[in-house]
Amino acid sequence: MNSTKILIPSAASILQSMRDIGYTLDTAVADIIDNSIAAAATKIDLIFSITPSPRFLIIDNGQGMDSDELYQALRFATKSPIEIREEKDLGRFGLGLKTASFSQARKLTVVSCKEGKMSAAQWDLDYVVQSDQWLLKIIDPSELSIDSMYLDQIAVHGTIVIWDDIDRIEFSENHTQAQNYLGYLLTKLREHLGLVFHKFIEGTAKTEKIKICLNHHEIEAFNPFCLSNQFTQLIGTEKILVDDSEVLLQAYTLPHYSKMNSAEYELFKKRSDLLNGQGAYVYRNDRLMVWGDWFRLIPKTENSKYARVEINFDKQIDHQWTIDIKKSKASPPYAVLEALRRIIGKITTASVRMSTKRVSKSLTTNQSPWNRFSGEEISYKLNTNFPLYQNFFNTLSSDQRIHFQSLVEIIQSSLPMQSIYSDMAVNPKQIAMFDQVDRQKTKQKFLRFAEFMQEENMTKDKLKDAAVTCGLFSQYTNDLDQWVEEYYA
Asked: For the domain 233-359, what is the CATH code?
């Protein structure tokens, strides 16, 4: 006859193992913020201090918990992944608060207040390991070692999550070095949260607008689609149903870097370089989970670097996305991949056009000093029909023409394409196409340029276009009208 035996897992072993699921400080804090959003918080304060010892506090003004609710929240896997949750609940496995906290610290304390009644409890990893039992410490809030101003913030309702004995972040004993490292961590955390929760911070999520502060400085939203810029293009929208749940795909092309103002350009250069930032941005109930990935449908290339696809799905179909505990990985279901494949064709075509239209526009007429040839291969050659070229070439003797043509061929064949490609991909606005000269010297160069071009009997508009196209005078476009008028006077 078969029988059964209850095997209670070792509390010490499980907690020690769960510390290495793979959280970083950034993903761990984001997981705690998910709980604050689920509690209808509109303000979340993050406090990270390293004196006298490292401590991290997450304080929210959410609805708070009574003692029984607090104990349930601290129970491991308190909710099943298949349990239906409220619309604003971003939880998944019922493990986030505990696993995220223990990934960084050995002691987790939670203080919560509901309807003016405060309660507190603590998981102490060393205490659990010592007893090898699931022993949760019940704490008297009045005995907590915490600044009263933080407790005052939740005097009516709210929750404070406290990490102590932070042992996964090593700080130098040198005060200056420790402060510098803390600054680095906070900057990285600020950027991560500003991206992951940008819809909540902007007020475009389905919940109320949320304010998140890190060490008393408000975190700004970083919208990866640059929607504040009028030149960002919405290429297409597609809606599909997965298990009767709607998945929305929206395709964008970012503005060419020349259409970004200096603040936008510096922000995108710092936060999301165009080449690696391309791809799908997957949101689960407006919370960004995965970004910058084409899911092997196409490779990341320079031509598609302006392409972005926003995918937003409802947590009711979590099981279709194979979400991990950290909520930082997800695999789209087949129906979503097929929709993404369809929309990629539109968006990458637009992105390629964005990347190449300036080249095509400026290299297709005789007014440009360069020609672009495309077929099985793409090449760039000097435009031998360019008036300046023709006029100079005609002044040469037969021997000089041979030497000059050899020089041109050497220049054409030795363009530093790899270096140009690398610089354009990383720092396009830092590339100078001409030497810095004063206005008067540039004007004299224009007059000499006009003398050569005039043999083509050009109109004023064509002369100005040719001057802009050649690049030498592009920094003085505001002066060209006056110079052209003076030349024809």
From this structure: 3.30.230
